[in-house]
Amino acid sequence: MTRKHSETEKCPVAKYCGGCQLQGFSYEKQLEIKQKRIEELLERFHKVEPIIGMKDPYHYRNKIQVTYGYDDHHRVVCGNYVPGTHQIIEIDECMICDEKANQIIQTVKELIIKYRISVFDEKAMKGCIRHVMIRCSNRNEYMVILVTGSPAIRNGEQLTKELLRRHPEITTVVQNINSRHTSMILGDKNRTLYGRGYITDTLYGLKFRISPASFYQVNKRQTEILYAEAVKAAQFKGNEVLIDAYCGTGTIGLYASKSVKKVLGVELNRSAVKDALINRKMNGIDNVEFVCEDAGKYMEYLAKQKIPVDTVIMDPPRTGSDKKFMSSVFALKPEKIVYVSCNPVTLKDDLNYLTKNYKVVKIQPVDMFPFTEHVESVVLITRA
Ligand SMILES: C[S@@+](CC[C@H](N)C(=O)[O-])C[C@H]1O[C@@H](n2cnc3c(N)ncnc32)[C@H](O)[C@@H]1O
To answer: What angle do CA 335, 229, 218 make, to 5 degrees?
Structure first.
């Protein structure tokens, strides 16, 4: 077991890692800061409800990733880039990441050194291990993703074998090949070295498959609260056609499916749509369709076809939505829009646009990312 941190104790690498901007503040103070930020940005649209915080704000992240490289003495190092640099700061234990995942990260590093596996040199663009990512589920399944710059991992079999012996909780090991000059972590090719190549999670009694590249909410304890707020805000009557836009692996749409007549989910990431289709089947749900497409283009198509839509739940990436999407929403005239946002700045811009024809009736912040400056919000918007 790792040691519990005190509320205001700073992580020793907080200054360099840049992941947790609110280190050193009590959790209560962090919630106050986030509430104030949301109010500053969004209160002009509507009163902001009190933020929903976590009971225990530590070790909530179900996804952890580290970058590999060499230091000036050609020693293998792994951790995060110091913001704005290409210098790696080593992290022994991350206080917001799952505790077992922290331990697996340390074991992988030990084994990479033990089995003399090369790590990636980004200047020379050669070497093997580039990043290691761990994803875990609340079913105690752990996926280890070894992101490599080269197709072969010398001594990879020994590494996998010892890793599995030391961490029986690992249910799958995947090699992801990324030889491109890019700041993206994952490349396009996956090779399963052990297990099924994915993990499964459970949310509100439904099972979800998560592949290496699919988006999945990172806070294993707050996700159900977030989705419940989104569905509660929509106040379904049972006969609605619902759009689940930017649907990822289908989590929100599949959850809402029992409360509506039909769900149309749209998502750009092919791997997430594949997972969504499997999730639908695995949970025996038959009133949900998933489409792999740009959400704006799909909405434009629905508007042209004059498909009746009652409610839109939209959960776009940090960059927010776009005019094509939102103007098609205007054309489709749904009664309600529920906007789930992880970035209040782009949310504000999009609300500026949407409130030309709609009005905001509820703003509910949810803390999905303790110790960081990030904050999620669920906004209910109805026809003006
Ligand atoms: C914040 S995630 C939400 C996913 C899902 N609703 C969930 O909670 O798991 C945003 C999703 O939008 C997808 N995305 C990004 N740009 C998109 C676009 N132009 N059209 C459709 N989906 C997009 C991403 O792949 C990602 O799965």
So the answer is: 120
Q: What is the pLDDT of residues 331-374, one digit of tens each?
A: 999 999 999 999 999 999 999 999 999 999 999 999 999 999 99
Mean pLDDT of 107-136: 95
Answer yes or no: CATH 3.40.50.150 is held by domain 27-55+219-383: yes
| Ligand 1 atom nearest residue 272's Cα | 27
Domain 63-197 has CATH 2.40.50.1070: yes
* Cβ–ligand 1 contact at 272 (below 6 Å): yes
Query: Is 342 annotated as catalytic?
Result: yes
- Whether ligand 1 lies within 6 angstroms of the CB of 217 is answered as yes
* The overall pTM is greater than 0.85: yes
**Percentage with pLDDT > 70 across the chain:** 98
- Other beta carbons within 10 Å of 182: 9
Task: Return d(Cα 117, Cα 233) in angstroms, integer.
Answer: 51
d(CA 216, CA 245): 15
* CA 10 from centre of chain: 25
Reply yes or no on whether the pLDDT at 2 is more than 60: no
